[in-house]
Amino acid sequence: MVPFSLAVGVTPLTARVDVADGELRARFGPWSVRTPLDNVEAAEVTGPYSFPKVVGPPRLSLADRGLTFGTSTRRGVCIRFKEPVTGALPFGVLRHPALTVTVDDPEGLAEALRSA
């Protein structure tokens, strides 16, 4: 974990991605994304990332409103959605067409999402 992420409540217990029961659930400290698996359009392994993209709270792409839940500069999975999802702000004020997550097994996550 990046110390800056720890400062905003992101710990090994609060940063996780689950694919189960027909849903994708991603948590990053107090932030979360939850969507049915049939809303996942694509999943691809990406990276490496620059340090500023994975330090601290979630990162928002100004280019496309994509969201990043990241703690590692090595690799992650970019998940694109058919319908944008909420995650950065409460009450669905902002919706994201994609979510990038850094996980221990990016290939495994990407395959699980493609197979679902």
Structure summary:
By secondary structure, this protein is mainly beta.
H and E string: HEEEEEEEEH
> Please, what is the oligomeric state?
single chain
Number of strands: 8
Runs in which pLDDT lies below 50 for 5 or more consecutive residues are: none
Indicate the percent of residues in helices: 10-25%
Largest sheet: 5 strands, mixed
Q: What best-fitting shape do the alpha-carbon axes yield?
A: globular
| SS content category | mainly beta
Task: Supply the number of helical segments.
Answer: 2
User: What is the residue-averaged pLDDT?
Assistant: 90
Tell me what portion of residues adopts beta-strand conformation. 35-45%
Radius of gyration: 13 Å
Order of neighbouring strands in the sheet with most strands: 4-7-8-6-5
| Distance between the ends | 29 Å
